[in-house]
Amino acid sequence: MKLSKKQQKALQATNVDMFFDLPVQHIETQQTVRLPDEKALSRIYDTLNYRYFDGKLPKVKIEWSSRMRIAGKCYVEHRLIKLGRKYHEYFPDEVEDTLKHEMIHILYPNHGKEFKREAERLGATRYAKEYPGGKSPHKYIYICPSCGQKYYRHRRMYNCSCGICSIRGYDPRYKLKLYWSAKSRRRSR
Ligand SMILES: [Zn+2]
Ligand SMILES: [Zn+2]
What we know:
Helix content is 35%, strand content 14%. By secondary structure, the chain is of the alpha+beta class. The chain folds into 2 domains: 38-134, Metalloproteases ("zincins"), catalytic domain (Zincin-like, 2-Layer Sandwich), CATH 3.30.2010.10; 138-183, no CATH class. The protein has a 3-stranded mixed sheet. It binds zinc ion (ZN) (2 copies). One zinc ion (ZN) is lined by residues 101, 105, 111, 130.
């Protein structure tokens, strides 16, 4: 029996097992946020430089770091700003804020009085973007393979199913999959 496109869609919507069998990888690529590439980052930098510093900050290179778990770091002597990819996959809307924060560091290395004044002027955060010790507020994000709801957790979860999709208690059809983990790129000791 050949199903029409409409029927196939209806079937996919009801039969979660079709989704359930997809490897985690597939879900990840489907849902992964798009972050600006390094060229786009440079453009944002230039814009902010002109808007807030009359274009007086030096040209710096801006790179994504997959290993870094903090939001960003400014290497003034190397004219380099590194942004943490993990952090921004988690907080994609914070790219500009992090960039502002690191740009102020070009002028002031510490979060002192002058830094605070500049942060207020630029509307950038003074501390929030720096996790002491590189800790993120949540260590794991789980996702429902059916509805896509994300769950933020400090601990690993085993055999938990989506609270929205499961009607009564644990339902293996809606078992949550690991979507993001702060540990996944950490070196094992
Ligand atoms: Zn800082
Ligand atoms: Zn769900």
